[in-house]
Please model this.
Amino acid sequence: MGPVTEIDMSYSMQLYYRQVWYDKRLAFNLENITELQLNNKFLHNIWKPDTYFLNGKKSYQHDITVPNIFLRMRKDGRLYVSRRLTIRARCPMILRKYPMDEAICHLSLGSFGYSTDDIIYIWAHGSNSVEVTDVTMTQFEMRGLKVGNHTLYKNQAYYSILGVSFYFTRNLGFFILQTYLPCYLIVALSWISFWINRDAAPARVLLGVTTILSLAAIGMTVREGLPRVPYATALDIFLNMCLVYNLSALIEYAGVNYFTKTGPGSPPENEEDEKVLLPLSESNTHTIENVDAQHIVESCTTKIQRKKYSGSCANAFWNCLTGNTSYRYGKNSTMDKERGLSVSRIDKVARYVFPISFGIFNSIYWCVYLLSR
Model:
């Protein structure tokens, strides 16, 4: 049995299809002969059920090296026919939990033209009529099967239908190794930017863009093997959240760069005011006194500017949104004298917020989808 493909919602199997029916016209009475073994050519000369598979897409009978048909006929008119077939049937799947989903594939068979007035199909051995001996599938594991029968009303007549349902559970090993684990590593790689110096803009931006492109490439590869369903799968949710975290890490650096990165500040109105001459002669002591006074004035001015541009977080966020250039220049120039290569407070917070929130998301994600299997 297998494979089960999502792209065209189908599955295939190879089976031995056995039918038994009675035709009293073929009964015979010969001494010492109770059963005849006949070749497949005999089937062309007798009546046989016009059985077909209702949800079949492409099926064929094996003919190598000869037609794989076995026919027996008993003296009471009982005919037993066995055929070796390969069937490809439709298997509609709901992929909302993909790749932690389950698939139920049905196979229905019945008469093409005879109603229940002429033919009634029944399972010869009840629930033991279908046996699965060789299940070789890479992505799915078969959990069981269920047989049944019902009647179908169409063209103003009732038709006897036999059905069997196969229950599959998808294996996660392939997806953990090929999708989930690489995504975890890429997201963790984007967090390295929180430890990179905020002045290394090329390194942090390049790291963020590279991780985003890597996740986008993984997402495109995964979606190539899926049909274009109108809803998000579990894997789509995971990939999109990883993309959000990587994009947030890049946006976080934009905030660090805007609020805390040291810039040139506003140009001084009089460059000569910043130059202070300290003469060594005692005759110019009044100049030193003037310098001390000027230092006091500059210190007071710095405190006033710091108070002007410090403000609350809401005020800083509003100036960031409105793009207040004077606010940024004023904040940068006041911070030039009091800050060197210290770590941004935003980076310090991000080092804890990003891993903790991502861990909470994964805990909820795996609990929701694994417990619902």
